[in-house]
Amino acid sequence: MTRIVVLAGGVGGARFLRGVREEARRRFPDGSGGTTAAIAAIVNTGDDAWLAGLRITPDLDSIMYTLAGVNDEQRGWGRLGESERVSAELREYGVGWPWFTLGDLDLGTHIARTSWLRDGLRLSAAVERLTRRWDLGGVRLLPATDDEVETHVRVRDGDVDRELHFQEWWTRYRAALPARAFVQRGVEAAQPAPGVLDAIASADAILLAPSNPVVSIGTVLGIPGLRQAVTGASAPIVGVSPIIGGAVVRGMADACLAAIGVETSAAAVAEHYGRRGRGGLLDGWLVDDRDAESMAAVAASEIAVSSLPLLMRDADTSAAIAAAALDLAGVHR
Ligand code: FO1
């Protein structure tokens, strides 16, 4: 059985995982439309928050809804056919964040998760129960950690420094307040969630989804022991550039890159991840055709590189990217 591990954040991670699943079905068919491959997503939980008494886990939910086929493809988050009657009531009561909408169907997920957490389940157990309801086509979702590690953003607001929860910076201020630093609160005491280290150790390929390199992939790798497990694994590590044509595809990832002094380019992100064996992660790197000029720089650091269209329009384009990543990882049929 071929084991594929994907480190992922929200929307980019969700679309890429849909492609990995589709390509696995083609490359390792099980004869009934599924795949014999085992796909495990190790998902960022740094965007998570307590809101209106509920535990919200945006990246896990984006991936779950997308793989279940019930996601709002246009908006990029939340449920298809959503309504917002409860959130209107919450706003009237002044409960929660008025700039962060919890849809009625989405609230079903948050209430179920929170009730299980209140019963004493760990996040990974709650995720397992939530995903049991949907058919994710065999993809296993693992939170990077069960511990509450939330990303906060240190911003300069006028002449004062203050820290905002990532979601406030991202959704209320649209990342417009210049970020001076990202802080993962509580990360020192955090541990990888059950199953994470085993999945990494037994992987045949480890893929970095085209998610935010700083607050998604970076946060996953920042969980103590995780980066070492990944760089020490026997599997090749291949990343997919989240930068296309020198720009980010969606979201405001360039604001995050700027905050850590990384140029918004396919080559700069590869350099940021670094060459495996030289303190970095990458054995391979996929760039978009529009960034083909960056291939020489990446190849110069002995990272295998190939180019193809990286805009994930649909399952086919996403599957083609997954195919290129698996090829670069040397995982063939
Ligand atoms: N993003 C927004 O821009 N506005 C929202 O009101 C919003 C609500 C929301 C509720 C649940 C959820 O899981 C995600 C939500 N998001 C919203 C997206 C969220 O900020 C992103 O999915 C990630 O946290 C950033 O990658």
Would you kindly provide a written description of the structure presented here, covering whatever features stand out?
This protein is an alpha/beta fold and 333 residues long. The chain has two domains: 3-66 and 123-147 and 189-250 and 265-328, 3-Layer(aba) Sandwich (Rossmann fold); 150-188, no CATH class. Helices cover 38% and strands 19% of the residues. The chain is globular, with a radius of gyration of 19 Å. It starts with a strand and ends in a 5-residue tail after the last helix. Bound molecules: ligand FO1. Ligand FO1 binds at residues 9-10, 47, 56, 58, 61-62, 77-78, 100-102, 106, 167, 170-171. Residues 9-10, 47, 56, 58, 61-62, 77-78, 100-102, 106, 167, 170-171 line the site of ligand FO1.
Give short descriptive properties of this protein:
alpha/beta; 14 strands; binds ligand FO1
Oligomeric assembly:
single chain
Helices and strands: which structural class? alpha/beta
The CATH architecture category of the largest domain equals 3-Layer(aba) Sandwich
Ligands bound to this protein structure? ligand FO1
Q: How are the SSEs ordered, and which strands pair?
A:
Blueprint: E1 3-8, H1 11-27, E2 38-43, E3 49-51, E4 54-56, H2 58-68, H3 85-93, H4 104-118, H5 123-133, E5 139-143, E6 150-157, E7 160-165, H6 166-172, E8 179-185, H7 196-201, E9 205-208, H8 213-221, H9 226-231, E10 237-240, E11 243-244, E12 247-248, H10 253-259, H11 266-273, E13 284-287, H12 295-300, E14 304-307, H13 315-328
Parallel strand pairs: 1-2, 1-9, 2-5, 9-10, 10-13, 13-14
Antiparallel strand pairs: 3-4, 6-7, 6-8, 11-12
Helix pairs in contact: 1-2, 1-13, 4-5
The chain binds ligand FO1.
Ligand FO1 binds at residues 9-10, 47, 56, 58, 61-62, 77-78, 100-102, 106, 167, 170-171.
